[in-house]
Design brief:
The chain is an alpha/beta fold. The chain has 14 helices and 10 strands. The chain has 2 domains: 8-223, Spore Coat Polysaccharide Biosynthesis Protein SpsA, Chain A (Alpha-Beta Complex), CATH 3.90.550.10; 225-322, no CATH class. The chain has helices spanning 21-29, 49-59, 74-84, 104-113, 140-144, 156-160, 174-180, 191-199, 221-224, 226-241, 248-267, 273-283, 287-297, 302-322, and strands at 8-14, 36-42, 65-67, 90-95, 99-100, 119-123, 127-129, 171-173, 203-206, 212-215.
């Protein structure tokens, strides 16, 4: 171990990913960077993951930490638990179904070491693969957003237009957490809220070297808990809108995102869709949000609302043509 290289804490989040643990852990073990502290944490898996993790670490004689909370607390609580057990001035995390390329940490540490403390996060794009590890045609960021150039520096406004950062590609200064706090355990998903909080006080650096492979799994939390994610996104928007001192352009972007997420919650009929629409309407009254709220309150399902909206739009267009 080269003590001149800053310690990097690697957090590996495990939850019912027994099929993929060996690949993920081997990707961590294969890192060319010489000074890693690895903290694996299992959030009460039911598929044998804890036993596989323990045996994998033991059989290789590794000094990795393995945390096993007794209660399933979700991603945010697991991350906070792991952070509390970590020591590195740099933090990088991955889910146990994703995979790092060997130079991931080395390249990113070199980047952050040569930037001022005001740059808090370096990130890159990621390849995508299916459950069997086969390459998929689109890169991660392209699958989520379209950019002429990848956001760099002050990216808060870009983040309010939608989350696009592959969490498994990031390297984060611990000073970011010292400044903005840990993950919000009242939210279902962890990363978008944290990226926004960090972006308010730190700059981001995009690295052109794709450093990870993101595995698309049918049973992942993103796909199986979409109702919770969308309701949580509305809650996140409202949380940020309560903060004082938001610049006007950021507040407008947050309000617009709340309206979009509220309509989305109506579309997929989340448990809180009426409340989300009400809060969006209260934040910035608009004809579209008002119509959606009234229809939802009347028990009209989103498809019927869409048909009514399209009909009114057609009739309005026809009236203009006739005039």
């Amino acid at each position: 171990m080269q003590t001149s290289a800053p310690l990097v804490t690697v957090i590996a989040l495990c939850y019912n990913q027994s099929r993929f643990i060996a690949d993920c852990f081997q990707g961590i073990l294969d890192q060319t960077y010489p000074n890693l502290e690895v903290v694996a944490i299992d959030d009460c898996s039911t598929d044998g993951t804890p036993e596989i993790v323990s045996e994998w670490i033991r059989s290789r004689g590794l000094a990795w930490k393995f945390l096993q909370p007794k209660v399933n607390g979700g991603v945010c609580r697991a991350l906070n638990h792991a952070l509390a057990s970590s020591k590195g001035p740099y933090i990088s995390m991955t889910a146990a179904d994703d995979l790092w390329l060997p130079d991931k940490i080395r390249q990113q540490v070199e980047i952050l070491n040569n930037l001022p403390e005001t740059t808090g996060v370096v990130y890159s794009d990621a390849y995508q693969m299916d459950e069997a590890g086969r390459a998929l045609p689109k890169m991660f960021i392209e699958a989520h957003r379209q950019f002429d150039s990848f956001p760099d520096g002050d990216i808060e406004l870009a983040l309010w237009e939608g989350n696009f950062i592959p969490a498994m590609t990031t390297l984060i200064r611990r000073s970011c957490y010292d400044s903005v706090g840990t993950y919000d355990e009242s939210l279902f998903a962890e990363d978008w809220d944290m990226w926004l909080r960090i972006a308010r006080g730190f700059r981001y650096k995009f690295s052109p070297h794709a450093c990870a492979k993101y595995r698309i799994v049918a049973t992942s939390l993103v796909r199986s808990k979409m109702h919770h994610i969308v309701d949580g996104s509305c809650r996140m928007c409202l949380k940020h809108l309560k903060e004082r001192g938001l610049p006007p352009h950021i507040r407008r972007a947050a309000v617009s995102q709340l309206a979009r997420q509220a309509i989305n919650s109506y579309k997929i009929a989340t448990p809180r869709h009426r409340w989300n629409l009400y809060k969006a309407l209260f934040s910035e009254p608009s004809v579209g949000t008002l119509a959606a709220f009234l229809c939802a309150s009347a028990g009209i399902a989103h498809p019927q609302y869409e048909r009514l909206r399209q009909r009114l739009r057609f009739e309005k267009l026809s009236a203009k043509v006739a005039a």
